[in-house]
Amino acid sequence: MSTSSLPENDISGHMTGSRDKAGDSTRALRAQRRAKRSGMLSQGFLSIVTFLWLFPLLYAVYTSFRPFSDTGGSDKGYFSLPSSLTFENYTTAWSDASLLKFFVNTLIIVVPSVILVLMLSSMAAFTVSRYTWKFNLFFLMLFTAGNLLPQQAIIVPLYRLYLAIPLPEFLSGSGTLYDTKLGIILIHVAFQLGFCTFVLSNFMKALPKDLNEAAMLDGAGVFKTFWDIILPLTRPALAALATLQVTWIYNDYFWARTLQTTGDEKPITSALQNLEGVFFTNNNLVAAGSLMVAIPILVVYFALQRHFISGLTLGATKG
After folding, report:
1. Would you say residue 115 has pLDDT above 90?
2. Are 123 and 31 in the same domain?
3. How many domains does the chain have?
4. Are residue 159 and residue 32 in the same domain, yes or no?
5. I want to staple 267 with a disulfide (CB 3.0 to 4.6 A). Which of 62, 63, 106, 242 is the partner?
6. How far is CA 34 from CA 48, 105, 301, in A?
7. Which one-letter DSSP state was computed for residue 171?
8. How far is it, in rounded angstroms, from Cα 142 to Cα 47?
9. What are phi and psi for residue 87, nearest 5 degrees?
């Protein structure tokens, strides 16, 4: 049947439908072009931000392999091409700063701190999230409010408090809590406890209440319910928090600088000052030492990366 034999309404409807289809395809093509341009702009922006973020690290790696004669003893400047690349800065930093000894000092601080923080915060989170009692909301708010207190605000009263707390001589050469690893461990536990309690309580609130009731029917007490049932289910959250806690406590400089004065007992972050000279500083040597100090954190992150990402993803769905 020819078009001329169709009724006028059918012809206009057919033409209108064709125009609508053409308009839809044009709008879809424009939307695809806008999405493509938006994607290119986003990728370009992210590439620039990534480069700016990684540039200091890449430059530190580049500087760590340059000899001091290229930067401190010539007119070449820090951004000139190197005359040679060498591992001498790494070997010198390792031996001159006695990094192995300070790594051990940091290990003595980090491991007990992380264990105590995760254990105490998991117990507190279990109490305020799995049981209803008069002060559970108050204590949760109290733990959370502790994260809002700046560390610098309490340094003077904390310093006086540490000098007033006596310790046996085998724990402290000064006879007080000041200038001891125990003092640094305690302040890390105190400051990190609130954040971990808040995070773990959100995880535990999402677990079914029937777990507690079933455990009670089976004769399990409160601690057995916590240890054998609830705690294993929060393993992704504990792994994510462990990664964060190791990173934060290991990288701490403020408390290590203010509460620890004995040179041989300092953590690794403050011990990097041993690479600084009296009249000048070899920045190439400091860069090499800083990169060696960062290696353990990278090892911990890559070892717990899968658990860390799964913990963050799980936490995104918890209210």
Report:
1. yes
2. no
3. 2
4. no
5. 106
6. 21, 56, 38
7. T
8. 41
9. -90, 10
In CATH, what number is assigned to the domain containing residue 311? 1.10.3720.10
Alpha helices for the chain (secondary structure H): 8-64, 68-71, 88-96, 99-130, 136-145, 155-164, 181-205, 210-217, 222-225, 231-233, 235-250, 254-258, 268-271, 283-303, 305-315
Using CA atoms of 150, 155, 157, 158 in order, give the dihedral in degrees to the nearest 10.
100
Tell me: do 29 and 161 sit in the same domain. Answer: no
Compute the residue count for the chain: 319
Do 31 and 142 fall within a single domain? no
pLDDT tens-digit map of 198-221: 888 888 888 888 888 888 888 888
Q: Can you tell me the distance from the alpha carbon of 241 to that of 194, in angstroms, rounded to the nearest whole number?
A: 12
Structural domain containing residue 283: 97-315
Residue 88 located in a structural domain: no
